[in-house]
Amino acid sequence: MKKKLIGISAVLLAAAVGCGDDNEPGGGGAPVDLQITGMSAPATVSFDGQGVLHATCQTDEDCAAVLGYYHAKNRFWQMDTQRRVSRGTLAELIPAAGTGKDEFLRHYLSTSTGEPIEEAIWAITDEGTKAIVEAYTAGVNSWLADARAGRNDATLTEEYRLGAIDVKADEIPDWDPLDTIAIARLLTWQLSDDSVTESSLGAAFPRLPVERAVALFTPAQATTTFTMPASGVSYFQETAGVRAMRAPFSLESVAAVQARLGVASRALEEARAKTAASELPLLGGVDDPKGSNNWVVAPQRTANGNALLANDPHLPLSNPGVWYFVDMDAKSEGTGSIHVAGGSFPGIPGVPIGRNENVAWGATVAYYDDTDLYVETLTEDGSAVLFDTDGDGTPEEVEIVSKDVQFGPANNRKTVTLKWVPHHGPILSEDLANRVAISARWTGHEATNELKAFLDVARASTVAEAKAALQQFEVGAQNFVLVDTNGSIGWYPHARVPVRSWASYSQTDPSGTLPPWLPLPGDGSAEWEGFLPADELPQMFDPPEGFIATANQDMTGATADGDPTNESPYLQAITAAGFRETRVVELLEEIGDQHTPETMIAIQADVHSLPGAYLVPAMLAAVDPGALSEDAQAVAAALEDWEYGCPTGLASSDPDGPVSTDPTEAKESIGCSAFHYLLSRVFANAYGDELRASGAPADSNLLIRPLTLALGPARDVQVDPAVLWDDLETTEVTEDAATILTASFEDAAAQLARAFGTDPNEWRWGRVHTITFESLVGDLAAAESVTGINNGPYANDGGLFTVDVANPPSLARGSGFAHGSGASLRIVNEATADGIKTWLQVPGGQDLHRDGEHYGDLVDGWLANESFVFPFTREEVDAAAVTTLRVGP
Fold it and tell me: Is the distance from CB of 218 to CB of 706 less than 8 angstroms?
């Protein structure tokens, strides 16, 4: 029946679109080259040398329809898989994927009572936004009609023929407006929900001696640079937030937290395993250290007297890339309200990072704590949870909502029962023997309309108007930075942030110790008390220092002592380690008042290893050179010569190609290799015992903190991280820093010799530090190895927590130095009195068709940090046009 209905839909849509290229829209006017259902009038579409889409339309809805058509034309596999993931139907396309991911995401991406979240969001979406989404949907379905009819070079990419998959266009369901809404919420989930981290820490935390748990899992950053203080503003003194210092830190109180979590250990392990296994590489893997940078500079600090904005969001470097670049203009020759350009997500009609005529905006993940896990106490039969509904200390039963849902392909569907706690959210796991369940509450379980925020920011003419638009962005917590042609700069990380007046980590009363980054009791003692008012959130506009920078780190400095709850309001806990933020601020201050677009691009390309600068001198000082073998002494010598740069050390991006003959590049590459191999072994030797005992994953963002706190300048943190040097698994000796580091130098020497040989001149970083642009869910689709769906590998510069981020996610696991995430775009905007000028770098190409002109064609420029100018004005677009089409209804 499904195929028959799809076929009827295709026939009706084909009739509406027409089958020839010479039909005249509206019964008159010039012929069109392409027809798209739902357009009100013809539009001009052109593509520049980089394959970027430029559309000049009559209305905003016409531009949305054009965007839908070309998103589908170039990236339909990406769109199709993401809608299926977000709506729990991936196994219908890829049976080999199994139904586990579908079950989890259909479960999690719902309201707290089990309604699919996209349906709840659509119900509250305003009519103007619905009109844009419906026009976009018509554009996507016009392309599908062309693909089904074999028109207009509309073809599926080869992913639809991977392995056991053999799907034709007429077997693919039409696009639905709810698909767009579901993808948007999926993206905000992957950018904000931290249930994996909380379940992982919750399971691991009670398995270690209390002082080791506190030291290993500290929220304290490795550095002490924070967004607001760096720009000359104190959040806790100059906003409605009130500093609320509490009692000194108490290990006894934390021991009480450990006891509470220990009872739920089995359920927490199951919750983490289920959540982690359900993540897909759409916006980042589970243990992949992610991040992004952005900053804005005021006119008084620039050489040209113009505000500047730079942004490089760090996301998976997939094939195709995350972004599709567009320029949609319904104003120059039309009656619309939008002329916007920048990065769009295929499947969604909006520009999350970009610019219009007068305003530019960028985004990084803000890491507000918008998720809590609850340890629920079940009734005897497991049908309800105990909850103090009246606040009088007497638990009452609250029934669990259960729904039966089918998953899998039509010929092999199965029914599973999904459960929700109505006042919290989905039940991730149950341990019936101990009457325990783990539920999750995330701000994204409530209906909000982020798409309207992006549509309205595209219409803003000043930073102030953009701020008002972004106040509608409530889920997905982004550090939005802004500049306008009047010279203003701003930062507005708006989102729903729960009020948790009970949040505490350092209470001397154990019964009141409730750290929100660890699972909480579900008895009613740790409930959200609404959301922080918009004017109490961190934000800055034209600050004293003339710049604002973010890099996913602590915004305010609240985590500096390792206890983010001893200042109120509580906002964040586990953020980025802080190295990128510190380095960006260093460079911004170093350049002073002579910033230009070129300096912005240079900062984005910076591969100075601040972790190396912090750690290497202390590591060298801690070991006795005479106690090192000859091979280990070579590692030490390479580090002594190192000035903390991380170039590839090769003559090209070919990891097997010849080495660079430049002596400085060679020296820096060799030192960078030595550092990363050494750091990998330090992580293993210092923390391997704690990780094995606790079951916690090896995560560089967590492990770098206690290491830096132990070796760097003295800091006011709760517990001396030096307690971690001693090995839990040995009783004969008490290990210290010298013991661990000496062994690590020897291990690193042995590993370097196995990888490169014993000649240090061969230790070229680009041999092992590579990037491969991998096909989205291609590994799930292929029943056997399929060549040609990935792009790479390429040698790449940068390293762990460099500004030009290239974090090797396996470094902490000791299993390699390739990386899969990085700058998913690099954009720089200069806001002049005459308008905004934009420079762009892209890690891939606009088109996923392997035989297309724009398949992966921009990778080389991205690897070399070479930007191209993004055309925007009509004159620029016409001059850059390589292909021009007339499209119409």
Answer: yes
